[in-house]
Amino acid sequence: MDSNAVKTYLLELQELIVDRLEQVDGKKFIRDKWTRATGSGGIGKGEGISCIIEEGNVLERGGVAFSHVQGDKMPASATAHRPELAGCSWEAMGVSLVMHPRNPYAPTSHANVRMFMAHKPDGDKVFWFGGGMDLTPYYGFEEDAVHFHQICKNSLDPFGDDLHAKYKKWCDEYFYLKHRNEQRGVGGIFFDDLNAPGFEASFAIQQSVGDHYLSAYVPLLEKRMNTPYGERERDFQLYRRGRYVEFNLVVDRGTIFGLQSNGRTESILLSMPPLVKWRYDWQPEAGTPEAELYDTFLKPRDWV
């Protein structure tokens, strides 16, 4: 169980993704390196690199964050399903990213790959991997959803015929706003608590998911980023971004874990869109492209 190999991979993945998105945008990400020697709420020390772009040519806001944190007592969110690990020391590392394009026809995307390891008093280690990627369009295009899901499937096919269907369903169930009775987007793949195949096999699945993100998302971004749009499309984009904020603050396990464990707030909330709107009891007009998003794309379906 070599956590150093995982850390090396994650740092290389972060730089690869940032470099490619800089090529698309034409503007550089800010690379904010941080360290913390001591902390509270269970965290002893941590380090990371938060790469952020704001007011870019294509990306209104985007972030790719690496973090490696360690603590002497696991936070409540991490032991909710594993009470036997309460009180154990731990370490967590991962890369998490969100891209919010300016153009309403270009979808938002999210991806995350992470590893958690608990250290028992007897010296035994308990690990699990998690991650995935998902797509949140504001205006739906069937060919975009098919492309994204096909790449997700390609990332998992080498590890078993059943994985894609399982992780696709998990994604649909996870990225769901119960208080709205809505999907967040068109889904993708999501997995957590992965350790049954063993450390090396679980790590290989995580690597494949991370390695496929750019080929899943960048072609869609490049296809849609220059589509003409007006005030109506921009207004709807900002309204739908509100759902993104609601999910991250109310549902997302990573956000909740980070805040509960007294993590670095700026990095935890890196995923937030820069501009958002809310309206009281608003519904799209029937027959419009906005209504089509709800009727066709915000419903789980087999895209591939």
From TrEMBL:
Swiss-Prot/TrEMBL catalytic activity: coproporphyrinogen III + O2 + 2 H(+) = protoporphyrinogen IX + 2 CO2 + 2 H2O
Annotated Pfam families: Coprogen_oxidas
Database matches in SUPFAM superfamilies: Coproporphyrinogen III oxidase
Keywords (A to Z) from UniProt: Cytoplasm, Heme biosynthesis, Metal-binding, Oxidoreductase, Porphyrin biosynthesis
GO MF terms, alphabetically ordered: coproporphyrinogen oxidase activity; metal ion binding; protein homodimerization activity
Region (Important for dimerization), start-end ranges: 244-279
Entry superkingdom: Bacteria
Cofactor requirements of the protein: a divalent metal cation
Site (Important for dimerization): 179
Residues bound to a divalent metal cation: 100, 110, 149, 179
Pathway stated in the Swiss-Prot or TrEMBL entry: Porphyrin-containing compound metabolism; protoporphyrin-IX biosynthesis; protoporphyrinogen-IX from coproporphyrinogen-III (O2 route): step 1/1
GO cellular component, one term: cytoplasm
Keyword Lyase: no
InterPro entries: Coprogen_oxidase_aer (IPR001260), Coprogen_oxidase_aer_sf (IPR036406), Coprogen_oxidase_CS (IPR018375)
Residues making up the signal peptide according to the UniProt record: none
Enzyme Commission number(s) from the entry: 1.3.3.3
Subunit structure: Homodimer.
Alphabetical list of HAMAP family matching this protein: Coprogen_oxidas
Protein name: Oxygen-dependent coproporphyrinogen-III oxidase
Lineage per the UniProt record: Bacteria, Pseudomonadati, Pseudomonadota, Betaproteobacteria, Nitrosomonadales
